Amino acid sequence: MSVLNVVLYPDDPLTRKAAPYEKIGPGVAKLAEDMLETMHAHDGVGLAGPQVGISKRIFVMQPPDGEALCLVNPEILKMEGEVEGEEGCLSIPRVYSDRVPRASWIEVKGFDETGSPVHFEAKDFLARIIQHEYDHLEGKFFFDRLDIISRDAVLAEWKTVRAELDSLDERVG
Fold first, then answer.
1. Are 133 and 127 in contact (CB under 8 A)?
2. In what order do the strands lie in the sheet with 117-123?
3. Catalytic residue among 67, 87, 133, 157
4. pLDDT in tens, 2-27
5. How far is CA 9 from the centre of its chain?
6. How far apart are CA 170 and CA 173, in angstroms?
7. Would you call 75 a catalytic residue per the annotation?
8. 139 with 55: CB under 8 angstroms?
9. Is 117 buried (19+), middle (13-18) or exposed (0-12) by CB count in 10 A?
10. Residue ranges of the domains in the chain?
11. Mean pLDDT, to the nearest integer, of 85-100?
């Protein structure tokens, strides 16, 4: 297993819709393993392909006290309820919003990393993780779901954080 580089907003391919997998081969399982390792190294609960520079429809997740799961070519079939909650993103580190609206219940289908079909329901925090990672496959971010004032505040905060991170990179590199 290896830790992959996490792509920072707005770098490619984060703002583009990811392509579906035509075939789920052994490379997908290895990628999922590396993505989980990367997610854990950054203390995340989810990570999508575009966040590691791969514009494919894959994400991994592991809620606290839950099992790790990989979804390939996922589809959200149904959504019910709405609740606001806090979200952050490994591609926008140190920036959060506690006003991100998400469905409280969803029905999902797709494939696991071996190509086996999966179909299940998720609620609460698990549903939030899936919706957040699914948005990445659509080229969207949690701040895209916020009202304009909240979105502008998140983006202004990110601009400051990104400048600090870029400055650190220049001094280290």
1. no
2. 46-48, 58-61, 69-80, 105-111, 117-123
3. 133
4. 999 999 999 999 999 999 999 999 99
5. 12
6. 5
7. no
8. no
9. exposed
10. 26-172
11. 98
* Six-digit token string for 27: 């490379």
Res. 1 pLDDT band, cuts 50 70 90: confident
Cis before residue 50, ω within 30 degrees of 0? Answer: no
Does the domain at 26-172 match CATH 3.90.45.10? Answer given as: yes
- Amino acid identity of residue 48, one-letter, is A
DSSP 8-class letter at 114:
T
- Identity (one letter) of the amino acid at 134? Y
* Distance from the Cα of residue 147 to its chain's centroid: 20
Torsions phi, psi of 117, nearest 5?
-70, 145
CA 65 to chain CA centroid, Å, is 19
Rounded Cα–Cα distance for residues 171 and 173 (Å): 6
Averaged pLDDT for residues 65-70: 95
Going along 23-172, which residue ranges are E strands? 46-48, 58-61, 69-80, 83-89, 92-102, 105-111, 117-123
